[in-house]
Design goal:
heterodimer; A: alpha/beta; Rossmann fold; 4-stranded antiparallel β-sheet; 14 strands; B: 412 residues; mainly alpha; 4-stranded mixed β-sheet
Chain lengths: 315, 412
């Protein structure tokens, strides 16, 4: 994961989209920089898909300004479409064409691009090249979508809910594929309601709630700013309790004993907690240590007043 | 434009691997062709007509004119004429006959020949007087008076007055009665025409044949079914596929590429046009193998088929854009296509339908489509095909304009 502070490839200023009396996106502003993985995070109905579909030139904004790769969205859709790749939410393509035929068709829609066979090989799809799309599993269908989006060698890749509906193994596999995209020099914009997906993949993230962005920053800074305290929970043996508590007090801002007798160390910084975690592990004995708290779940809880369920619902 | 070809190939592959679509496009029309042609395959449709000739001379033999009229009826290929003895009570005859086929009787009344002659003479005299009046000053008054005197002195030979009426009797539920009545009217018209200009009664009435070839049932149905299948593909199958592409996200994925809307529409139209030609080829081959039909569509017929495909595909793309879901698209397509198909005379001759429905038929593009194809493929003539070409040409342009206007390329 790398972040380079150069001119943004995407800049969005006061973007608003309404459908009749309903406001889907309201005065959204953010920037995306080259070669980063940027996540739009939020529950269902937060306006994530509407926002990316405006950037993909699939929807027209009601007001505001959005530029992709220097081109104005809504006015210069042709050059934008030539240089972006899109994997829509609930991606689908021609059922009765093979994986290779679908990827080759996608390639032929662009002026330039990569060899479909190379893309299939890169995404470990070669053995499914002659398999019809309809007969693929959900994970491989999604991977075919990524292949179709990458075959044009895009500067920016939009992934709308790339792992929704996938089983854990397929999700992990898709994450690995997405992480490798930055090796190609591709900037990735993804939408998701999975907080662990943001932690796993994203360099920066914007949190959307009810069509508005409530925070946008690097994932680390979001966690540090809004994630609250990090806790190190130690379950000591009685003969080690004294040594462990002393070591914990020397690095933590506060230490107390909870109802079960565990020692709990409070840290303001996750990195300090991780360092203390290593030090306590080095002490010989039969104790166990757990690092808890201060992730994107906590950030979202702090900013949105709730958590996002597995189906994307706000709880 | 370079994106049209790969998209056309992709659409065609996807379509050809769709069993339901292939069935309805290829096997269904072939099955229909086989069924309809087998049912009517023994030749042109033939109707049994009973004739009772009550116009007997002093020698109790039928008069020459009534015989000539019956000969004329027998000369019509679509009629199988059987006689009923003169003087027989028709009601009683019909009752005794029971359910042995449809009962249609033509009764030639006594005095038929006399009335025809009288009518013929009156008509000819009218012509002479009219000619004399028009000649005006070229014939002097004396000569005009002499001519009038001569005409009045011409022996009438009969006291008959009024038109010579033949009576056609049929059951009220006889579906073929209107068609037979139409045939009778044609024979009578020809008979009258001949009767005016000659002294001797006409001995034959030449019925108008459909063409130089011996036209059989399959010839009738082949062009009609080609037109029907092109329409079904355009108005029913295509909208369902388009709605499916739209509903499952396939179209959105394409719209996210640099593909233009007009290229998408053109690729679909071209695919359906190619498909129409393939279907035509298959049906012609099947008709040749099974029914020994030798017709091969010429350039004009192919052109008309392409125009039909463009017209119905264009309107099909519009339908596919108006509704969500392939089921709704199929229902809408069927609601439009099926009534048009049945009303337009694809499966039966328009003469069998009420007059107002015949008028409605002429307002449908499919009517002109299959009539034009029949002229070109079966009758091998270009006579009358200007109207089908004009209507489908305008229809094709209109359909494409509407399709481009209605198809959404943003905010799906």
């Amino acid at each position: 994961m790398t972040t380079e502070s150069t001119d943004p490839v995407i800049s969005v200023t006061d973007l608003t989209k309404t459908y009749g009396d309903t406001t889907a996106v309201e005065s959204v502003s953010f920037e995306v920089y080259p070669n980063e993985i940027f996540a739009l995070v939020g529950p269902n109905g937060a306006g994530k898909t509407t926002t990316v579909e405006i950037l993909e030139c699939l929807r027209t904004p009601t007001s505001g300004v959005a530029r992709v790769l220097g081109y104005a969205v809504g006015e210069e859709s042709r050059p934008i479409k030539q240089r972006i790749g899109v994997v829509p939410q609930s991606f689908h393509t021609f059922d009765r064409l093979t994986v290779h035929e679908n990827v080759a068709l996608a390639r032929q829609m662009y002026e330039k691009g990569r060899d479909p066979d190379d893309i299939l090989e890169r995404l470990d799809l070669s053995e499914y090249a002659d398999t019809r799309f309809a007969t693929l599993s959900g994970g491989y269908q999604r991977r075919t979508g990524i292949a179709m989006a990458l075959v044009s060698d895009p500067d920016v890749l939009f992934l709308d809910e790339p792992t929704t509906g996938l089983d854990p193994a397929a999700r992990q596999s898709t994450w690995e594929q997405i992480e490798r995209l930055t090796d190609l020099g591709t900037t990735v914009v993804l939408t998701t309601h999975y907080m662990e997906e943001v932690e796993e993949l994203a360099d920066r993230a914007a949190l959307l709630v009810d069509g508005e962005i409530v925070a946008v920053d690097t994932v680390a800074d979001l966690v540090e700013t809004y994630g609250g305290d990090v806790k190190l929970v130690v379950d000591p043996t009685e003969d080690q309790r004294g040594e462990l508590e002393a070591r914990l007090r020397s690095v933590a801002t506060d230490v107390y004993q909870d109802d079960t007798g565990n020692l709990v160390g409070i840290f303001e910084d996750r990195y300090d907690a991780q360092e203390a975690f290593g030090q306590l592990l080095d002490i010989e004995g039969d104790h166990s240590i757990e690092l808890t708290g201060a992730g994107m779940e906590d950030v979202f809880l702090q900013l949105a007043g709730g958590t996002v369920g597995n189906r994307g619902e706000l709880r | 434009m370079t994106r049209i070809w790969p998209l056309l190939v992709a659409l065609s592959k996807d379509w050809l691997r769709n069993r339901e679509a292939v069935f309805f496009a290829f096997l269904f029309p072939v099955i229909l062709l086989l069924i309809f042609s087998a049912v009517f395959g023994g030749g042109a449709a033939e109707f049994t007509l009973h004739v009772q000739n009550n116009d007997l001379g002093p020698d109790e033999n039928p008069t020459n004119l009534s015989t000539a009229f019956i000969d004329a009826l027998e000369g019509v290929e679509a009629l199988e004429v059987q006689s009923i003895p003169a003087g027989r009570n028709i009601t009683e005859w019909s009752r005794q006959r029971g359910s042995a086929g449809a009962t249609r009787v033509v009764v030639i009344p006594h005095g038929f020949a006399d009335k025809v002659r009288a009518g013929s003479r009156e008509a000819r005299q009218s012509v002479i007087l009219d000619t004399m009046t028009r000649a005006g000053g070229q014939i002097n008054q004396t000569n005009q008076a002499r001519i009038r005197q001569g005409l009045n002195a011409t022996p009438n030979g009969t006291n008959a007055t009024g038109p010579a009426e033949i009576v056609f009797l049929s059951a009220s539920d006889d579906q073929a009665a209107p068609a037979i009545r139409g045939i009778l009217s044609s024979v009578v018209a020809q008979f009258n025409s001949n009767a005016i200009g000659v002294e001797t009664p006409p001995t034959t009435v030449v019925s108008d044949d459909l063409g130089s070839r011996n036209v059989e049932g399959v010839d009738y149905y082949l062009p009609a079914l080609i037109a029907a299948v092109v329409m079904i593909n355009g108005l029913i199958t295509l909208p369902a596929l388009l709605a499916e592409f739209s509903g499952d996200g396939t179209l959105k994925r394409l719209i996210a590429t640099p593909l233009r809307k007009r290229d998408w529409i053109l690729a679909n139209v071209l695919q359906q046009a190619v498909l129409a030609l393939l279907i035509t080829g298959v049906m012609v081959v099947v008709a040749h193998l099974v029914f020994d039909v030798t017709v091969i569509p010429g350039p004009l017929a192919i052109g008309l088929i392409l125009l039909g495909a463009i017209t119905f595909t264009g309107f099909g793309m519009t339908l596919g854009s108006l509704v969500e879901g392939s089921d709704a698209a199929t229902s809408l397509g069927m609601a439009i296509a099926l009534p048009m198909m049945f009303v337009s005379g694809v499966f039966w001759e328009l003469d069998l339908m009420p007059e107002y429905l015949q008028t409605v038929a002429t307002l449908t593009p499919i009517y002109h489509f299959h009539r034009g194809l029949r002229q070109l493929m079966v009758l091998d003539t270009t006579q009358g095909v200007g109207v089908p070409f004009a209507i489908l040409g305008v229809g094709a342009v209109l359909a494409l304009v509407v399709a481009v206007h209605v198809t959404q390329w943003q905010d799906l």
